[in-house]
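Q: Convert this sequence to structure tokens.
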Amino acid sequence: MTESKSKPSGKLAEIFAKMNMSELPAMSTNVQELISLVHSSRSASYDLSRVILKDYSLTNKVLQVVNSAYYSLGQSVSSISKAVTILGFDAVRDLATAIAIFEDFIKSGVEKEGVTKLMTRSFLSALHCRDLAGEKKLNVLPEEAFICGLLHNLGKIITFIYMPDIYKKIEGNIALGIPEETATRQLLEDLTFSDLGKEIAKFWNLSHKVVISMETHPAKPKSGYDAEGYLQNLADFSNRFVDLVCNDEDTSELLLHYGEVLSINQEQALELLNKGVEASQDISDSIRYGLSKLKIHSRLEKAARRETASPEQEKSAKKAKKTGQDIEELDELPSSDKSINDFIKEMTETLMGSFQLNEFYANLLEAIYRGVGFDRVILCVMSIQTTKIVLAGRFGLGDIDAQDIANFEQPLANVDQVIPRAMKQCKDIAVEVEALEAFPENMHYLVKGRTVYLFPIVINNKAIALLYMDRKAGRPKLNKDRIKALRLFRDFAAMAIKKSSKKG
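A:
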């Protein structure tokens, strides 16, 4: 990248100084010129051709793509000016900008596979953004949507390139269940990826619309004429959607949030992404490499199968999992175990020394929530009331508040329901999504849309407490190693209770 004489903002200079950076990232002159070009200029087409022709490599790549099977022009295009005449100013400018930014970052010298995968995701998101804006006739210029979608994750990409060690630590913390915003603030001097991207965009003198479109979780557009609001929502949705598909994760919750705002459903979103993947095949060798490393075709097929099969799966779940199922009978998918051993070591050391039981419970829930990987964990204990025996929530962690924990109460008399049955039989049970009949009505709000795991804590062949754990629909099921670790953590709880009772 070329040197930049601009002075960074105070915040940006501060963070790079603290990270011991010798110089700040500078965007190449070609990229800056391409982004600044406006179609309304009288000489727009000439200016675009002039900027592209400055870079021999960029010129060849643009002509290669224009002559590819994707555009199917039926004639050979040998000049940039002819490409602009046939395809239009906006299409050529978007294409050239994407290639130029991509090549700038690839030349940064960092680990090739990682940066290529990140940039390919951004490029797919940009195409998705542009096509969605055009197809839904939103009050947004498609070419603006493209650029805003492309640069939405600029802060993340910059962190990966210029601060790889910090990026790895952030990713590691996210894998443990820490929210991305929290993980980045801890390691980027209280900045998020979005904050960092905005500061760098200002340093590069990018447009106001590009800067505001880096916002995560933006507010809904104020009206149908709120172009900036739609740009923010388009950029955030498309980038999140592409990330979820590439990570083989469920997109239903995202669609639930953005579906009405952008008038899109799962099938339409996948169709646009498929279209973008096809468009990307001939952009450059780097993007082709990125697509192969993302395994995007198989990810799209899985997402399409999940979307098509979901009604059938829900029906099957209600029928087969009505009262729960022994956990070993569930299909299991592999997952990383890097953090579990650390938790096991820590808890073993705790049990060997003196400890407060409530503090142990807090560590136990963290090990299960972050180590094994759940959205919510509740520790429930037996409570003898005047007329009945119930399981009552005492401690919780994750997507749940104190009131929900306090309201968690399950009478144990009705063994037709899954929690009393798990306690009576001292059996670990998993209940599939939407098997609401397995729970009392007052718990339906809690278990709806969740796969629930119930692990009784047993002492002297009697269940005295229960670990309630759940995961949102679409998350992979536990594999055997994680089930083994979860049972070990549960056994630690029984040991802690025994040790505490003897001490008392």
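Residues 296-320 form the longest helix (25 residues).
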